[in-house]
Amino acid sequence: MSEFTSLDKLGEFGLIRKIKETVKLENASTLVGIGDDAAVLEPGEKNIVVSTDMLVEGVHFDLTFCPLRHLGYKAVAVNVSDIAAMNAIPTQITVSLGISARYTVEAIDDLYEGIRFACENYKVDLVGGDTTSSKSGLIISITAIGEVAKGEAVLRSTAKPNDLICVTGDLGAAYLGLQVLEREKQVYLDNPEMQPDLQEKEYLVQRQLKPEARMDFIHELKELAVKPTAMIDISDGLASELLHICTQSNTGAAIYQDKLPADQQVLNTAEEFQLDPVMCILNGGEDYELLFTVNLADYDKIRNHPDITIIGKMTEASEGVRLVTPSGNAFPIQAQGWTHF
Amino acid sequence: MSEFTSLDKLGEFGLIRKIKETVKLENASTLVGIGDDAAVLEPGEKNIVVSTDMLVEGVHFDLTFCPLRHLGYKAVAVNVSDIAAMNAIPTQITVSLGISARYTVEAIDDLYEGIRFACENYKVDLVGGDTTSSKSGLIISITAIGEVAKGEAVLRSTAKPNDLICVTGDLGAAYLGLQVLEREKQVYLDNPEMQPDLQEKEYLVQRQLKPEARMDFIHELKELAVKPTAMIDISDGLASELLHICTQSNTGAAIYQDKLPADQQVLNTAEEFQLDPVMCILNGGEDYELLFTVNLADYDKIRNHPDITIIGKMTEASEGVRLVTPSGNAFPIQAQGWTHF
């Protein structure tokens, strides 16, 4: 006999009840959470920021190597990352799920365990959502709400020429983590007896499966008394995000290849896969680090910060968006983003 | 040569740009809309309500008889309906789409035309979203945000015994509209030469394809100076929604079969399809009318309102939730909701 429970048995309202029972509310601004037509928030004298992201099975995740618990965590983290990129503090999320028939109650529990763990970690309240069936696979759509003092939201459109371009952490690891996982999946499919040895790739795999939103850094910026002139989170890749800032701020930019931060595992693994490490860093995406610009006057506040790398500077729009190689050559940076319809 | 444009050609950012260009912002509380990591809202001294709904192709809609423009409109309307059911005024929405390869740019334009039309009609600002590809069919996930004065939100959990139970408009039409459309689809599949004659079913079909959120009635309630004790919108069906109010308010209820409001087309068409009209009214769903309870003291304010029908009264929880027939028999009302996993 199976130890799993079909969702059919539990029904929609049973599933919602189960979810509601395990959700704790932490934010004073949350008046009413799950269980009514809408959540009710009382933000006080703040601005509200709202962001939303959809993850689709087979497009954004592959459950053969992504445990549901990690997926739940990641789905929250990527939304929190958008709120962080506004210089705001996340306070609430809503979670909508489309679930196909092959999922059990236990599987959805695993997913919510990851969601709840992320909610605790980022101190956000799960206040509502929708659960529905789907014809194929799992769909997760999350909306995150955050607060920021009036006038303190940091947009993409407000960078200026001569601002310094900075990134947090290192780049390219999540993309190479995905390459490693896909190779191991293929090895496993060819020979199910083989046990993957991912020890040397642990950092890459973790960056892919369990990315963190850089909320820590938003608090850090306040301590440094630095307000970026523009900011965006790196979900599609550094090149794509830099182009967003430049387009929306009507500027150009120059970034320096030898300044781009990467972990040693990124460099080693790119070589192993015969991939150009610079392309991995520029276009890999899913690192959820922050790309931001600061006024030159703030240089002394950030120059020695261990988590900030200054990678270039903003320029006039007429100079374009360029990557400068160690030999001093400059190449235009191209847009990416999905074209996988 | 085809006159349609593949989404591949436009790309993700092209699609977002197209959407952004055609969106107008109307609400003073919208500081920043589409185009950043999150929207920025400045609600002032109000409460915020947030609701979300997901529509999945093949589960919630069938594009053989639902034009994309209508679908876009409906997707917004059902979210606005949730905000209305909180006694709040909708102000912003975010729209996330999962789009499969068989959709063209023109198809997504049609969808957004319906979304924009609904935004204008309900005076809400489209402030953000996510567009992604999907392996099968179209997925629409919308989050709606609204405002309500502090303390004026109406919950499901605050009805009291002896409160009057009221509904707006009439019920059962959207469900029978779906039956009509599915029959016509079958006729068409059997014989593509046949032109459907839907003239006598126009009201039913319109209620299914183009439901309206009862925002008009929320404004009306203010004019009547009536604050319901509890309220919910009727998406799953009268029976299911009444059970939600009773469970969450810890009450029972008695509703009277001969008071249930239905259009003559509902009664005629139920007979034609050999369906019990009472079951269509109780469990049909998707009418998006409002079910609400009011204190007896408000009876005189609502008794002659042409759009309100008093269908019963709340009771102690021990009396259960019952339907009283014209002959005076009482039957317990059962829960529904989807079990279509």
From TrEMBL, chains A, B:
Q: Where in the numbering of this chain does the PurM-like N-terminal domain appear?
A: 35-148
Enzyme superclass (EC):
transferase
Further details from the record: Reaction mechanism of ThiL seems to utilize a direct, inline transfer of the gamma-phosphate of ATP to TMP rather than a phosphorylated enzyme intermediate.
Q: In which pathway does it act?
A: Cofactor biosynthesis; thiamine diphosphate biosynthesis; thiamine diphosphate from thiamine phosphate: step 1/1
Q: What molecular function terms (GO) are annotated for this protein?
A: ATP binding; magnesium ion binding; thiamine-phosphate kinase activity
Annotated positions binding Mg(2+) 1: T52, D53, D130
**Record: residues binding Mg(2+) 2:** D53, D82
Question: Hey, which family's this protein in?
Answer: Belongs to the thiamine-monophosphate kinase family.
Q: Which organism is it from?
A: Adhaeribacter rhizoryzae
Q: Binding positions for Mg(2+) 4? A: D37, S51, D82
The record's Gene Ontology biological-process terms are: thiamine biosynthetic process; thiamine diphosphate biosynthetic process
Q: Which SUPFAM superfamilies match?
A: PurM C-terminal domain-like, PurM N-terminal domain-like
Name of the protein: Thiamine-monophosphate kinase
The PurM-like C-terminal domain extends over 160-273
